[in-house]
Specification:
heterodimer; A: alpha/beta; Hypothetical Protein Ychn, Chain: A; globular; B: alpha+beta; Translation Initiation Factor IF3; 2 helices
Chain lengths: 156, 76
């Protein structure tokens, strides 16, 4: 069907919180009948790893809601990031928010096409065996081949 | 409430899961069949309206009972 709407997303961030927008929007768009593609570049490549180990941090992120005020100097203590990540995951679960694993799985099921930036793979010397199956590797021109025809194009 | 062919309990699930689960359930249904959805996410009220409008599946009913939101969707 060529009259399908198209959504192109660039995912550039590799933290737990910023992993949500691309997968929420891609899976929902697919459910609405959009043909959808996500181009993962730089830190966004983390979102394609088989074993996701996404973290969240309050450092440099003053808007992150905290149960109590924590001075920045305390936030830098080793183990704080892991603790905040586990608190965030617990909160998400209690509110019925899907995990990134689940949203990614639903996106794949809905035939969202995922393209990994080849340049980033080379730059950070990633092993493609660490990435999920069924993704493609390409560059900026590959992205524009789809994005140029898209109705909605987002940079996350 | 009218008859329905399948029911989906999306209670406790947050955006976008009720929509994604509904879409998945509709995929396994025949045209003209009716899906009843129960959700607790207040955002699902607007979202199911938008889903119906964009996908062509008809939102026959949308209501609230005991803090739960119920929807009847007729598959296109």
């Amino acid at each position: 069907m060529s009259d399908e709407k198209k959504l192109a997303i660039i995912a550039t961030k590799g933290s737990l919180d910023w992993a949500y927008p691309p997968f929420i929007l891609a899976s929902t768009a697919a459910a609405l009948g959009y043909q959808t593609q996500i181009f993962f570049t730089f830190y966004g490549l983390e979102l394609l790893k088989k074993d996701l180990n996404l973290q969240v941090t309050s450092l440099g992120n003053p808007a992150m809601p905290m149960p109590m005020p924590v001075p920045v100097i305390i936030q830098t203590i080793p183990g704080m990031q892991a603790m905040m990540t586990s608190m965030m995951k617990k909160k998400m679960k209690s509110k019925g928010v899907a995990s990134i694993e689940e949203l990614r799985e639903l996106s794949i099921e809905a035939e969202v096409k995922m393209v990994a930036c080849q340049m980033t793979v080379d730059l950070f010397e990633f092993d493609t065996k660490d990435f999920i199956d069924g993704i493609e590797y390409g560059g900026a021109a590959t992205f524009f081949e789809f994005a140029g025809e898209s109705d909605v194009c987002l940079y996350v | 409430m009218a008859n329905f062919d399948q029911e989906l309990d999306a209670s406790g699930l947050n955006c976008p899961l009720p929509i994604l689960r509904a879409k998945k359930t509709l995929n396994g249904m025949e045209s003209g069949q009716i899906l009843r959805i129960v959700a607790t996410d207040p955002g699902s009220v607007k979202d199911f309206e938008a889903f119906a409008k964009q996908t062509g599946n008809e939102l026959m009913e949308s209501g609230e009972e005991d803090g739960k939101y119920t929807f009847l969707l007729k598959k296109k």
